[in-house]
Amino acid sequence: MDITAFLGEIITLFIMAFALGMDAFSVGLGMGLIRLRLKQIFSIGMTIGLFHMWMPLAGMMIGHFLSDTFGAIATYVGGGLLLFLGLQMIISSFKDDDQQRMITPVGFGLFIFALSVSLDSFSVGLSLGIYGAKTVMVILMFGIVSMVLSWIGLLLGRKVQNWLGTYSEVLGGCILLVFGVKLLFPL
User: Where are the transmembrane segments (predicted)?
Assistant: First the structure.
């Protein structure tokens, strides 16, 4: 393989990984507005990175004949999950601190959170399977970039949370709502 073709493929995959990872950054920014410890931020980023690895892998393995159907479904499911998470954050911000949130970025809530931001990488994986992209390079690039971007979003959200105080969780929920609506109703 020619070195320029190889570098071109790496740059293309990085741009795709960055675009997909911006979902994780945006949602991480909103979720970072909840009081999270650094250990939680680390595990959230790792989980999102892993989801961004196995979702495109699953997409690549399933094949191109399903890409049109599952591409739209994945977008709608991801948008619905983000709407649900955003509403849940807004509602829980008006409750006493002693009451538990329905979904938090721990345990099953972390699974839902990571799934919501990685569903689009499934449909991209389907598309990349058509073109015969290098599987290992794709999943590593997608996983690492989304993990780093989610960490940046979570840490930035955590910093902003200190400035906004009690309104930060409402703002975080609104960010998730807007992002969910954007996925459900693209312009």
Answer: 6-29, 41-67, 73-94, 106-130, 136-157, 164-185
